Amino acid sequence: MKYLALLSGGKDSCFNLLHCAKNGHELIAAASLGPEAGKEELDSYLYQTVGQDAIEFVARALDVPLYRRVITGDAVEQGSEYGSRNAKDATARGVEGDETEDLFALLSDVKSHHPEIQGVSVGAILSNYQRVRVEHVCRRLELTSLCYLWNRDQGELLAEMIDAGMQAIIIKVAGIGLTTKHLGKTLAEMHPTLLKLNQQYGAHICGEGGEYESLTLDCPLFKHRIVLTDVETVIHSDNDFATVAFLRIKKAVLEPKPPVEAFDLKIPPLLDDPFIAIRDAVSASQENLDSRTERRPVPVMIKEPIVDDVQSQKYGPWVSVANVQHRDLHHVVEISIEDEVTECFNILQASLSEYDLDVSNCTNINIFLSSIDLFARINAIYSTFFGSSPPARACVALDLPHPIRVRLDCIAFIESNRGDRQALHVQGLSYWAPANIGPYSQAITAKEHVFISGQIGLIPSQLSLPSPWSLATETALACQHVARVVNVLSSSGGGWKGHAQAALYWVSDISDLVHVKRVRDTFPEDPRTPTLYLVVKALPKEALVEKQVLYHTGRCPVVDEDDGEVTMQSGEPTSEQKYMNFADGSALHWQAWHLEDESHCAIISVKGEDIALTTNAFNDANMLPKLKRSISVRLFYVPSRAASAISLCKSLFANEKYPPTTPIPCRFIATGDADDWDYALCIIGSS
């Protein structure tokens, strides 16, 4: 795509341009924000403003037009989110008076001159603050953020910059161990010092903590190199802890350089080592002819279980809404798919409003389609209901009974304070994990629960599936995406050691199921995690596998007996499994995960027609008391058991008011150790 470079002049913004070029994008223009005339530096939360005198030279070296704007706003909104979660506000405006709106005005101006521009190059490595705001602006302007350095290892990045021929110098120091003597030194000259400071003090190797700032004098994309002919050292403050000083660039010139036809650039490997092992294990399984499963005919839906209308329930700070779907099941009036989605969200909103909530309070939504061909049209309407920090989401196609084309459920969270619900919503293209340019976050964290969106095996830098089709690579990528989302959440959330509470693997071809199961033999995922494998009609983008995980940070509130103060401490989950086989061939399998009194998840798998037999065994095992705090239930069933699915659910919950339950027809249901279950219940509970 054609893109503009958001330039600070530093190493990161320029190095990202090399990756944009390697990924086939075409640079059209550059844009930069800086202080008003006479000010050399601003205390900006969002922009690097030192070195602005040289920005003009960087753009000229790149041989592209430069668009500039003065920063007039302040850091009005300093939280982890930017803009409104309300869809009606989100695309119309940001936060009045915030410096982010200066960027919106600047990029709007560039786009008016270059309407062909589709992307924006951003050099963010670690800053969620910067990334969130740039992506908010890009979304409003229908631009794609190109952020190939995002979440890369800083040690690797700095070495790659040097190896790629980046000539950047230090123009500001503000970190421990850095002094005026380091000003003007190149990255190569500073490399040993920066590594040493990282080891001694934990300083960020790439300066992500504000330790230093840089100016690029040459890189492979430059048509000319920049030569500084007159500079002055300015000391802002000098103390025993850290000197703050910068180079004032008084004069510079451009020198011609021979054209660079090609340049070497290290691209991060698609898979990390643990996930290469998954790919290889799945591939080896596919090569083993004995492990293949014969294809089965597509089952015919006999009858949809009779389910009450939309169901909802509040438990503590949680509200669940289930079985949201079109109400005219007799198909009296033909409506468009757009109207059907809108009706579903109106029903959802009406249910949430009973608890003084709206859709922006949702933490997770599961959306089920009758055909994956409807995905784009449904997504277009879905996106109109969410602004910033939308809920996590999983989407699959099912054999829904006619005339239903959309069914959904959700879990919402009642916040005491705005920060109680945290979103990870990365919308830029990178090598990290797939961008969620659409209306859902990679993950939502609330009350130590982490709802992770369903992950398919997209190549992050391209947002496309591997070509040719590869179950092995898709499975490995889906698992890696989940792991990388968890790692980012953990590192930004205090370094918690989390635990997977439940894992679902959605598969579109039954013959692939046995191979996907090899993940458990290869990947060091907690064997205590309740896991289910589900064969369904289709997955987004015609993917072969989708992984959906519910996580918990592992932290629990502990009350001090002396002063009553509440602190968060790490807890250790417990788990249990039970197998029951009966003479008539019926079976019951129970997988449960508990973290003290804070949270629980269970997957109950059932085989057989005798509901009374199953229920008695369930009660004899004293399982029901453990489910009293259940928030929601997803009820998976095969077509031959459609009529009895809800009866089973009611019976297992002793005919009490069972939690909101969404029926989900599947073509095949399996657990790690057994196949061909008739039903499975995935139950989520909390305090």
Automatic annotation (TrEMBL):
Metabolic or biological pathway = Protein modification; peptidyl-diphthamide biosynthesis
Q: Which domain of life is it from?
A: Eukaryota
For this protein, the Enzyme Commission number is 6.3.1.14
Q: Which Gene3D superfamilies match?
A: HUPs (3.40.50.620), putative n-type atp pyrophosphatase, domain 2 (3.90.1490.10), RutC-like (3.30.1330.40)
| Signal peptide extent | none
Q: Name one Pfam family in it.
A: Diphthami_syn_2
Catalytic reactions of this protein:
diphthine-[translation elongation factor 2] + NH4(+) + ATP = diphthamide-[translation elongation factor 2] + AMP + diphosphate + H(+)
Give the Diphthamide synthase domain ranges.
1-80, 90-244
Respond yes or no to whether keyword Metal-binding is given for this record: no
What CDD domains does this protein's entry cite?
AANH_PF0828-like, eu_AANH_C_1
One GO BP annotation is: protein histidyl modification to diphthamide
Q: Which GO terms describe its molecular function?
A: ATP binding; diphthine-ammonia ligase activity
Q: Does the keyword Transport apply?
A: no
Give the top-level enzyme category. ligase
Q: Which UniProt keywords apply?
A: ATP-binding, Ligase, Nucleotide-binding
Matching entries from NCBIfam families are given as: MJ0570_dom
Q: What's the protein called, per UniProt?
A: Diphthine--ammonia ligase
Q: Which organism is it from?
A: Hypsizygus marmoreus
